[in-house]
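Journal club prep — side note

Before the paper discussion, L.F. wants everyone to see what a predicted structure for a comparable chain looks like in token form. Sequence:
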Amino acid sequence: MRLPLIRPAELSPGRRALYDAFEKMVEADEYTGFEVRNAEGAFVGPWGVMLHFPDLAQPLGHFIGLVQRLPGLSERARQVVILTIGGRFKVAYEMYAHARLASRAGLRPDQVATLCTGGRPSDLTKEDALAADVATALIAGGPVPGPLYDTVVETLGQEAFDAIVFITIHYLALGTLLNAYDVSAGSPGSGAGIAA
């Protein structure tokens, strides 16, 4: 990473509050199985970058929290969107962490691998395929094609389309942040505990 990781002993008061908020967030089960802190307790991944920008991290974190609670899309389809973004933009940490989350959500290793290489598996569910198609259309530039929009809204509902849009925005922002500061994937095989 191009920025130094900030150990707990090095935290300023403003960063301490953000660190504590991150610590509370990563206690959730969804953050197990991949590295979020190193052995010294310093956050890695997006948290390690955001600690350098506490004033920006707070509103971004609020936005992310709202997006994560949007209804209308299964966890599996959410992971398809995230890996579509991560694979297209080669976001190492995103692919590392979300490959594990996608597997937990029911995607097979070969489907995860295809998404991580920027492809679209041919045997996705209807919901997953439409989610991948909308995310791909959004990152290609220009308006989402009318027939795709109509199909998604008719098949999955407006809430699902909206969720795909905002999940795409969320992971484009995080992916840009991670790529700008050259954040690598975490340690393989990291699990609960320090690498929660």
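L.F.'s comment for the group: Residues 158-180 form the longest helix (23 residues). Keep this in mind when we get to the figures.
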